[in-house]
Structure formats: C-alpha cells, structure tokens
Design goal:
Elements lengths: L4 H13 L1 E5 L7 H8 L5 E6 L13 E5 L2 H13 L12 E4 L26 H57 L2 H8 L9
Length: 200
C-alpha cells in the first residue's frame, strides 16, 4: 500500500528538518571532502551538490547535506555560525543554515497546493517590472560568472602553493629522518661536542 500524499509530504518535511544548506564552498570541494568534514558533527546520510545554473560548466558552490537527525543539523548550523569553518584548506569560511522546502529539486507536491500560470501582456502594469527583473538577472549572471572565474583562478594558485609547501616540508622531514636514521646526527654531535638529548 502506497503512502498517502499527506504522509509522503510529512516524511519530506522531516527530511528537510535534518538537512543543512551549505554554501560558499570552494569548487575544489568534492562530495567525499564534504562528507568527511561534516561527519565530525554526526552521521551524514546524504550529500547532494546544488547545480550552478548560472554557468555553462557547473561548478558547485552549495550543497544540501542530510544528517541522521535534526539535532546534528542544528549543531552544524550553530558551530559554523560561531566559528570559521574551512574546507580543502581554502581561506573562505563555509556558511550553513537550515534547509528550506524550495531548495529541493525533487520534492513531493504539497497536498492542496495549486499553481496558476498566466502570460503578461506588454500593456500589463507588471510587464515593465518583469522586464527589469529579467535584465537584472542577466546582469547578475554576468557579474557572477566573472567573479567565479577570478575565484577559481585564485584558489587553483593557492592550491598549487599549498602543494609545493607540503612537498618542501616533506623533503625536510625526509632529510632530518635520514640524518637521524643513518647515525650522521650522532657523529656530528660527537664532533662538535653537542648533547643531542638537550638539543631542542
């Protein structure tokens, strides 16, 4: 027996309550990175990136993350509101807030809801308002595209710098480990009369 429309929508509303909307994400963040980062607050049951319809190539900047219960979802929102939370080492704090029904592409129809659509005539008083909104949306899309390209370039540069720094530090570690392992450090200590146990 299939659940009624009311029961299906009630179950969906419960899902919304335990889901967090996370945005200001770096394009470098993957689904596994997102899940790993938020698993420290509880159990992530599902993570879904929201498509970026402003760009020809979708670079996800936001996601819906479903937790095991609403308490875990509220904890994420509280923590990110009070403390900077970074992902992938990018210097851009991730933001979180409670998910809303309208954020879900695949959502059941609300029982009793009716949608009416009508075309606006050029003579209609609201026609000019709609036209201005349309032009403003196009302008916003162009500005957003430009800023996103700048952001991606900066984060790729930062990512390369971080990788080079990590590689250089690892080489230093290997050098120190090698000196300690092959006895070179002890020979130098005897040569220059240095007590390794007191060296910092």
């Amino acid at each position: 027996m299939e659940p009624s429309a009311e029961a299906e929508y009630a179950a969906f509303e419960e899902k919304v309550k335990r889901t967090v909307y996370v945005d200001n994400l770096s394009p470098q963040v993957t689904e596994s990175v997102l899940k790993t980062a938020l698993n420290q607050f509880g159990n992530v049951t599902n993570a879904e990136f929201i498509p970026n319809y402003m760009e020809p190539v979708s670079l996800p900047l936001a996601a819906l993350v479903e937790m095991e219960n609403s308490k875990q979802a509220r904890q994420i929102i509280s923590e990110m509101a009070n403390f900077p939370f970074m992902m992938s080492g990018m210097p851009r704090p991730v933001r979180a807030r409670a998910a809303e029904v309208e954020m879900f592409d695949e959502r059941p129809r609300k029982p009793g809801r009716r949608i009416q659509i009508c075309w606006l005539s050029p003579k209609d008083p609201d026609f000019e308002v709609a036209k201005k909104i349309k032009n403003l949306t196009r302008k916003h899309a162009t500005e957003s595209s430009f800023l996103l390209k700048q952001q991606v370039a900066e984060e790729e540069k930062l990512g390369n710098q971080q990788a080079e720094t990590l590689k250089a530090n690892y080489k230093k570690y290997e050098l120190i480990d090698g000196v300690l392992g092959d006895g070179t450090a002890k020979r130098l200590a005897r040569r220059y009369n240095v007590n390794l146990s007191n060296a910092s």
